[in-house]
Amino acid sequence: MTVHYSASNHVATVTLDRPEALNALDRDSLNALRAALAQARDDDDVRAIVLTGAGRKSFCVGADLKNTLPPSTSFGSSFVRPIDRAAAEGIYVRLMELSTLRIFKPIIGAINGYCLGGGLELALQCDLRIASSNAMFGLPEVVVASIPAVCGIQALQKAVPSALAMKMLLTGCKIDAAYAERVGLITDVVEPDALMDKALELAGTIASNGPLAVQMIKKIVETSSNVPLAQAFEFTELAWGAMRDSEDRVEGRKAFVEKRKPQFKGR
Prior knowledge:
Elements: E1 3-8, E2 11-16, H1 27-42, E3 48-53, E4 58-60, H2 75-79, H3 83-88, H4 93-96, E5 107-111, E6 114-116, H5 118-124, E7 128-132, E8 136-138, H6 152-159, H7 162-171, E9 174-176, H8 177-182, E10 188-190, H9 195-207, H10 211-224, H11 229-244, H12 247-258
Parallel strand pairs: 2-3, 3-5, 4-6, 5-7, 6-8, 7-10
Antiparallel strand pairs: 1-2, 8-9
């Protein structure tokens, strides 16, 4: 199994496990990753997801270059195919694009070691990113005459200052964890042994909040980030109205008044 899944205390952990390939992703492991994330999405008991890579050497170095060589099928004919068929015909990058899974539960990237190429593109799709002190980040596709084909170009521009994003994109250079934290690519740096404890602590804090509210916030962010401000305000008000009469919101207010910990049910 190239991807492991576990769930406890409202938190699912998804682990990429191909240490011999620095957790690089081929089509089988990408399908396994999507299946694990879909399992977390569909489990009502799960309220937050931690995505990580096995071992200390690598979170993920992107596509397995040995197993993703260009196919005989023309790109033009595959481009109009649905995800699974397009992936089978060589457009494997569609499997790395996680928005098609429609996951509104927060995903925390716990990054140990190399986070390169498609690995960084996976991390950029996480809602929060924390890293071990030995982590390295980069989009080196240009070095092998390719480009970041999932979301790397656009997402990196949003995650870090534009000049730094362009430097990383055009040179293929890497940055370390300390610098990544300084420019806002990640929120926390910890020692390797403490990485998963920190990730699970953060996930646990999120999971203790109202699950519908958490997911609604993520939905609002994704839906209204690129629309006019007036439209964003209107959508946010509608979302607030949808949440107003939820059992959890009522429970949250009762718990506050009664000075006790709320018991949220996701309803």
